[in-house]
Amino acid sequence: MDQTSNAREELDRLGRSLRRQLVELISDLTLRVHLRRLSLDEPKAADPHEPLRHHYATGYQGNRPANVTAAETAARAISRLRAAGWEVTASQEDDDGILWTVLVAHRDGNSIRILTSDDTPAVVFRGQTPALTLHPPQPVQPPEPVRTPETLTPGYVLCYECDGLGRCPGCGGRGWVLREPHRRHRCAECGTRQVCPICQGHGELSVSSLSPYQRGYYPELDRP
């Protein structure tokens, strides 16, 4: 099995483990549980740096029972997590006048954050796996042009912007460019559309529709 398959299997295993623990906590600490909201369908890019790393991340908000205090909720969560082998720390955070008890738990690279407060019945759960590289960096391969001088439609010229490539010349058709050390940024030319913004991916332009400005790129059209 190759390294890519091993990384995806490990990430999926961590994701399943994380969801099981969250399901136990949510079912035990909150009312009227709707676990369909606790989705871990596909891993997401953790950050825009190359090579991309992916993780599973999810969140859920429920309500504790009216006869259970925030302190009791936190204590029960700590007990469950520690019994399952998680390292847990607790702190207090003030957020816009609401004083939260914040639990942060770690195990096998997974992390869970739980917030509960006597100022609100809400109990907030957030969880994520570690971020893993699922695919090795791939060398950028320039795409084949969609039009060449030999394949032009009669009455058309190669697009002056992409020279028949059809893809955005600013990003090579990726939709992003690298700036700073290995960081992806949205392509300013195509706005992630990937196609050439002048010919819209066709690689060619109709001579009859060229503006006077665009004709300046084709001096041969005005020669006798």
Gist of the model:
This protein has three helices and twelve strands, in the order αβββαβββββββββα. The chain is α+β, with helices and mostly antiparallel strands. A hairpin with a 3-residue loop joins strand 10 and strand 11.
Please compute the radius of gyration using only Cα atoms. 27 Å
Instruction: For the record, give the distance between the C-alpha atoms at the N and C termini, rounded to a whole number.
Output: 65 Å
Shape: elongated
Order of helices and strands: HEEEHEEEEEEEEEH
Give the DSSP E fraction (strand runs of 2 or more residues). 25-35%
SS-derived structural category: alpha+beta
**Amount of helix:** 10-25%
Query: Helix count?
Result: 3
Described by its quaternary structure, the protein is single chain
Care to count the β-strands?
12
Low-confidence stretches: none
Strand order of the largest sheet: 3-7-6-5-4
Mean pLDDT: 91
Major sheet characteristics: 5 strands, antiparallel
Task: For the structure shown, list the relevant keywords.
single chain, 224 residues, alpha+beta, 3-stranded antiparallel beta sheet, 3 helices, 12 strands
Describe the overall structure.
The protein is α+β, with helices and mostly antiparallel strands and 224 residues long. Helix content is 20%, strand content 29%. It is built from three helices and twelve strands, in the order αβββαβββββββββα. A hairpin with a 2-residue loop joins β6 (110-117) and β7 (120-128).
